[in-house]
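Problem 12. The chain below contains 71 residues. Write out its predicted structure in token notation.
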Amino acid sequence: MINGVIAQKLQNLDSVLIELHSLGCLTIQELEQDWRTKRAVERSLQILVEISIVRLAFCVWAITRFLSGMG
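Solution.
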């Protein structure tokens, strides 16, 4: 089950990165002038951070399991 969660998060990561890339280069001024784009970028970055945390937690879990099997 956890592998399915990770796989889904990675797929979501790809989707979010594609969406962000489609915006092209944005300046701070452009973001401040267009609140919808700013909110979309903020939400996308939030999702990317959440996915990174889940991936890190999975890595810690896997390393812990591996090391506990070595003892």
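Discussion. The helical segments are 2-22, 28-33, 35-70. Students who got a different answer should revisit the alignment rule from Section 12.3.
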